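Field reference: sequence -> structure
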Amino acid sequence: MTADAPAFRLPSAAAWSLVGLQFVFLILLGFLPWGDLWLREVGTLVLGLVLVALGVGIVLVAGAGLGRTLTPSPIPKADGQLVTTGVYSLVRHPIYSGLLVLGVGLVVIGASWLHLLAWVALLSVFMTKSRFEERMLADQYPDYEAYAARVGRLVPGVGRFRA
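Structure field:
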């Protein structure tokens, strides 16, 4: 970003719309009718519950790692700090990653096309949200682009910025 270029800011209404959409798709994943794409046996349900628990754990660890910088909005706090340690040394958006893992667990349990569609929609929201967020983070933190060139977006090593 050049010194004379204006900083990108996502309108607040758009930011909160993305937050709302992510919750809509997470709620749908939990409450859509179950299907029969695969057998829903004890092993399948255990796998789904393990993935849900793993996702919740990732979200909690990532949220704690952000501390006072944590916000549900993709608009970074003006007084926040860039966190690049802990789970943030593996992926740039571990909260989104954790929610996607949780979502995969709900897809495994739900076993329906509707669950798969809701998960893909959730992924789309997080991809959109993270792209807007990263533009603002790059404007706010001079080291962000170098960090993003080293660390994947949602999966370790995947979605790094090109040098």
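Note: The mean pLDDT is 94.
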